[in-house]
Amino acid sequence: MEITDRDFVTIRSVIERQLEAFQKDDAQGAFAFASPGIQEQFCTPENFMQMVRKHYPAVYRPRSVFFEKITIIQGNITQPVLLLSPHGVPLRALYFMEKQPDDTWRINGCFLVSVKAEII
Length: 120
Fold this sequence. Notes:
This protein is α+β, with helices and mostly antiparallel strands. The relative contact order is 0.18. Strands 1, 2, 3, 4 and 5 form a 5-stranded antiparallel β-sheet that branches. Helices cover 39% and strands 30% of the residues. It has one domain (5-114): Nuclear Transport Factor 2, Chain: A (Roll). This is DUF4864 domain-containing protein. It comes from Amazonocrinis nigriterrae CENA67.
């Protein structure tokens, strides 16, 4: 699948808008950026928000956000985002993106991985 410049901008915007919704505790808004499969899995915006609060505090309330270069991981278009957790722990969020039939982009999962700091 070819990713256009417009796709890059749109994907970043979708993630930024979901992060903004989390900051405002806007469950409905955040849920709207999830793929149909994620929405089906959690059934309601409230269930989704509760899961994010409990298991993804770095996504729910990041201290800082830095977008890296989009890549493909196991066939999934993936937007890596460096986050600083509320407790100051650096993490990389791998956002798996899914293009919808109407050509919009939705978040189809997020996987957090540790970022090891190097002292030079």
